[in-house]
Design brief:
The protein is mostly beta strands and about 120 residues long. It has a single domain, classed as Jelly Rolls (Sandwich), CATH 2.60.120.10. The protein has no helices and 11 strands. The relative contact order is 0.30.
């Protein structure tokens, strides 16, 4: 199932108790909200393009083949600062991995609900 968001699309590739694997495509110039999760961590691997990552107080870029780990309770954001599509594989692990485990601090699309 492919899910459309204002920033692009994602598709759940696999999931079971304690984990979920997604393919995330972020449109050129778009970004996900600045957010955190109370019950899951995330590991992002860039498979195409360049990702700008906010993780806690750090902001840095990742390119194809590079990855980062986002611990539980860490404010984070994924952005595409380029004019080409960004594709990231995300592995989320925790005792609860549903989309409503999200707290948004800033969202350029005006979303305040738990819809990623």
């Amino acid at each position: 199932m492919t899910v459309t968001r204002p920033w692009g699309i994602y598709k759940v590739l696999d999931e079971a108790t304690g984990f979920k694997v997604k393919r995330i495509e972020v449109s050129p110039g778009a970004s996900l909200s600045l957010q955190l999760h109370h019950r899951r961590n995330e590991h992002w691997v860039v498979v195409r393009g360049t990702a700008r990552v906010t993780s806690g107080d750090r902001v840095f870029d990742l390119r194809q083949g590079e990855s980062t780990f986002i611990p539980v309770e860490t404010k984070h954001r994924l952005e595409n600062p380029t004019d080409e599509a960004l594709v990231v594989v995300e592995v989320a692990c925790g005792d609860y991995i549903e989309e409503d485990d999200i707290v948004r601090f800033h969202d350029r699309y005006g979303r305040q609900t738990a819809d990623g």
